[in-house]
């Protein structure tokens, strides 16, 4: 008998013998299934592990190469392919650019002690010189003389003016005439170096949205003949005009553009794509007050004097050295500054009247004396043109020559009337608008 503690099998917890199981048999290999596995694995590698496989490929390809030590192999050349594109803006600029100049104005004042108390020690008196820079455009050449239009505020108060030509040559200039109301001035120079003259287009023909190009010397002659491009934003925009002290001197009807206009562009031309001058750049709006001493920054709002007005003014400046304008000899208030309630209760205006000029005072030398127009009447037309405010009154008035007779339409005690007036009074350039919104005209 054998030892009863020896068994051929394993002893379980239930004291039962677990019979050994036969080893499982491996399935037979099938060629087709291996191919399927390989294709699946390959697809998985491409889609899911492509970065790793690709990375290995790149590494294996470049690991056996070294970076060149000869830096001369990095040498390159410019292309010999010529780009011949020339757009219309470029053609317009090339047509005018040599007629655009920089204008430099100088004013000198003697602030030395010698000027106050005599010459101490026989030395020279000290001079304080200030400089103003702007732009201009040559518009006429006659014999040995060339004429340039610029802004009045560029040369105002100066006793010396020089012009920097497009070729870099600086020439002395003489002031032919200037006009503070229109902010225009005419200069003349020797025409020997003048190779190009600009022509004026009709500013009445411009359209909102058409391309406009501004040429000038922004920030001074260092950036002379700079070109900026934009569009016509408004054909006739009425804006307030202020003097150097910030006092409003009236209103002006101008062309509005979003072409970049900066200090130094003043007096330069605004041109169309035909290369014609359609305006003289005069100012830009850089900020606007919003109350409580704060202001809002403004971009893309530049203004130019329309070419039709420019031509009229500079022809008078050349002929007379000044602009001779008729005047009504009155103090006035824009109707829009009168509360609507008072327009009806005090001025007796019908509700259909929405614009005009209120006569606040009639001067002794006014051509309106004896015309029937009285204080408190509202002028609504002059010379057949509608008057809606100060700007439209000046435009209508300045369209006539001194001594001409015009018909004036007005309201008196609510009744519409007309009268004829002979313009005998000449305007001067010293009229200013007071804080009460009254204006001598």
TrEMBL record:
UniProt cross-references to Pfam families, sorted A to Z: PDZ_2 (PF13180), Trypsin_2 (PF13365)
Any one of the GO BP annotations: proteolysis
The gene coding this protein: degP
Segments crossing the lipid bilayer: 37-60
CDD domains in the record: cpPDZ_BsHtra-like (cd06781)
Family to which this protein belongs: Belongs to the peptidase S1C family.
Name by which UniProt lists this protein: Endopeptidase
Residue numbers spanned by region Disordered: 1-30
Any one GO MF annotation of this record: serine-type endopeptidase activity
Key words of the record: Hydrolase, Membrane, Protease, Serine protease, Transmembrane, Transmembrane helix
SMART domains xref list: PDZ
Keyword Transmembrane (UniProt): yes
Polar residues composition bias: residue spans: 1-18
UniProt-listed InterPro entries: Chloro_Bact_Ser_Proteases, PDZ, PDZ_sf, Peptidase_S1_PA, Peptidase_S1_PA_chymotrypsin, Peptidase_S1C
Protease among keywords: yes
Domain of life: Bacteria
